[in-house]
Amino acid sequence: MGRTKKHHKGSKAVLPPFSKPQPEAGPSTPSPAPALSPQELLEKVAVLIASVNYEAAKAVCVKAVEGAVEAQDAQIIRDAFEILGTVELELGELDDAREHFLISIQHAAALPNPSPAPHLYLAQLSSPEESLTHFSNALNIIQNKLAAIEKIKLGGDGNAGSADDVEEEDDLRRSASRALVGMTELYLTDLCFEPDAESNCEKHLELAVSIDPSDPEVYQTLASVRLSQQRPGDAKEAALKGWSLWRKLGADSPDYPVASTRMSLAKLLLELSDHVPALEILQQLENEDDEDPEMWYLSGWAWWLLGEGRGAAPPQEGEETREECWSESKLCLENYLRLDSLDPTGSDPEQLSHVRELLGKLEAAGIVTSSGHLEGEDEWEDDDSDAEEGMEVE
How confident is residue 4, by pLDDT bands cut at 50, 70 and 90? Predict the structure, then answer.
């Protein structure tokens, strides 16, 4: 604020004759900005989330919740609690996120358009039995939305609608297939001893394929089911089908699987003795992050198995010899050990023991490390090392 001129008590300002008193000149005070509505606050939250500023996003989202509750707007209350829960997930505040997702579901009960998202999130935060219920609830909501879209199509000219309509339908189909995959995975793991576990796996995956036949995770999960049924041929067919759906996609494609999904597929292919596709996937993962010990472990194991399968017979044209495979294996396993020596806190004792066992066999066989570049300590220095060198102790 600017200063105003002070007048002593009893004194008067001298004015020109016949003039009216005028306000004293000085800096004007800006009018306060109008308060943002809960909807505008949620739009601001979306911007903060996009910039990965989750702490600020949470603070603004709390204001949106308070404003929505004060306005008694049930839909905004539902949306605000759902978004608040997603932000808290990013912050690792799982208990708060769970509570706010449940509140969002409570407010959605009175609305004609419930959101499946809180159920899908809660399925990841709950016991197996509760997870199954949340997946099922999410699936029912999604199927109702898809039925409504189909009804609109039939009532219109039969066209798919605008690009936004098509995108919404595609997103719903993908969410439905992922819910069904989640339910199947529960029956493959925590609920595997349920009497109807196998039939439920078959039923859920059959439905998932009918809803979204382009979802790679459906076929990858089907491969796991077939492997558990001792049907390796069918398992390999399903795994390769899933891989074919994203193999040629760029990493920026929304359909390109996350690293953990691709790593799981590489493991599955190794179990099925399909080493070459597994190595192609692992090579992509190496290009994205060459400081992942598990990637080096699996790559070393895959090269070892491939070499073992080649035997001493001359390779076919374009194939590596057994020695070349094992040389690559040694490179990968040594990279694993180098990373482990830099940060042993995340060591997997079983993996570490296996790596040392394999390296012992390779050494005994006289295998020389691949002429490919062996990552050195100078490239894998701790990220803080340069900063520490430039810091002065005060």
Answer: very low
- Which pLDDT band, with edges at 50, 70 and 90, does 1 fall under? very low
Highest mean pLDDT among 30-39, 150-159, 250-259, 297-306: 297-306
pLDDT in tens, 326-354: 999 999 999 999 999 998 888 899 999 99
pLDDT at 368: 92
Q: What is the 3-state secondary structure (H, E, C) of the chain?
A: CCCCCCCCCCCCCCCCCCCCCCCCCCCCCCCCCCCCCHHHHHHHHHHHHHCCCHHHHHHHHHHHHHHHHHHCCHHHHHHHHHHHHHHHHHCCCHHHHHHHHHHHHHHHCCCCCCCCHHHHHHHCCCCHHHHHHHHHHHHHHHHHHHHHHHHHHHHCCCCCCCHHHHHHHHHHHHHHHHHHHHHHHHHHCCCCCCCCHHHHHHHHHHHHHHHCCCCHHHHHHHHHHHHHCCCHHHHHHHHHHHHHCCCCCCCCCCCCCCHHHHHHHHHHHHHCCCHHHHHHHHHHHHHHCCCCHHHHHHHHHHHHHHHHHHCCCCCCCCCCCHHHHHHHHHHHHHHHHHHHHHCHHHCCHHHHHHHHHHHHHHHHCCCCCCCCCCCCCCCCCCCCHHHHHHCCCC
Sorted by sequence, the CB contacts under 8 Å of residue 232 that are 6+ apart come out as 226, 272
- Quote the CA–CA distance of 387 and 384 in Å, as a whole number: 5
pLDDT exceeds cutoff 70 at 118: yes
Q: Are 333 and 373 in contact (CB under 8 A)?
A: no
- How many CB atoms within 10 Å of residue 290? 14
Tell me, what's the pLDDT at 347? 83
